[in-house]
Amino acid sequence: MIVTVTPNPALDLTWHVDRILPGGTHRADTGVARAGGKGLNVARVAHAHGAPVRALATAGGPTGDEFAAELAASGVPHELIPVRGATRRSIALVDEHLGDTTIVNERGLNPGPEEWAALAEAVRRSLGDAPVRGRKPVLVLSGSLPPGAPDELLPGLIRLGRNVGATVIADTSGPALLAAADAGATVLKPNAAELAEATGIADPVAGACELLHRGASLVLLSRGADGMLAVTSEEIVRARLAEPLAGNPTGAGDAAVAACAVLLARGVKDPVALLRRATAWSAAAVLMPLAGEIHPSWPDLESAVMVDSPSLTALRRPSVERTPR
Ligand SMILES: O=P(O)(O)OC[C@H]1O[C@](O)(CO)[C@@H](O)[C@H]1O
């Protein structure tokens, strides 16, 4: 069972325009509204692959009602904690000409202590329900925290997961990324910019080692067109496609987390297997117009993923194989 937690969910609104002109007026067909936020996207992808999943999030106000209705229609098993403030919006403008997506994410409102306690209780209950055929659950904590969220929120949820033997994956940024490492999250999935910003270390391998030193077991680093890197205390492995795919990168990181969660929930722990599938699903997500979906060609993409163990010097430029560190 995979339990995903999205502490700062969003109603994702997407519009496609011919070309974005700064300062201009744009005409668009009716936009798409989806229940989003990173943990929701992870849950959608895992659910689409038949993995047992439960998505936990908060919802409030008119945007929260729309969010809840869309999520119910999606069929993804979920539980929403009612909050007083309105669910935030995330706005994506897709430039059809350039193929670029411009995103505005509202910061979100901080629910009160009772709502955070209710979310933690839902996590505890869901993890308790989780054992499926004797397998330990996977707890996924994904996305930003609203401003003012308690510092203890993420570490508390991570400890809750660890106490029941769950594998914990955290995909977050800023001080929360360091806090997740300190609390012993099993897998962390920052992108290169998030890693550098949180650790203050420009070199990605040194930054990943800092997270391992603090308590994480595996750092999966997404590097855009350069693919992904898996760093453990024993090895550094790189994976990428020979030719990066063009498309919509929104939600590519969420698909990578979903790939990891699905394999870990099946008991697969080999970093190379996790990295290979995460790279393939991430690429397959780039081929889809909306976050939370991946293209059915993912098995072909997985066979096309090149894996190698690069030298540290090569990593300061971008390349693939397996070298002990
Ligand atoms: O929590 P944030 O980092 O603000 O990210 C949220 C946003 O990212 C996405 O999950 C895409 O990765 C969108 O669905 C959107 O809601």
TrEMBL record:
Protein's recorded name: Tagatose-6-phosphate kinase
GO molecular function: ATP binding; phosphofructokinase activity; tagatose-6-phosphate kinase activity
TM helices/strands, residue ranges: none
GO cellular component annotations of the record: cytosol
Similarity field: Belongs to the carbohydrate kinase PfkB family.
Enzyme class: transferase
SUPFAM superfamilies membership: Ribokinase-like
Gene name of this polypeptide: lacC
Superkingdom of origin organism: Bacteria
Gene3D superfamilies linked to this entry: 3.40.1190.20
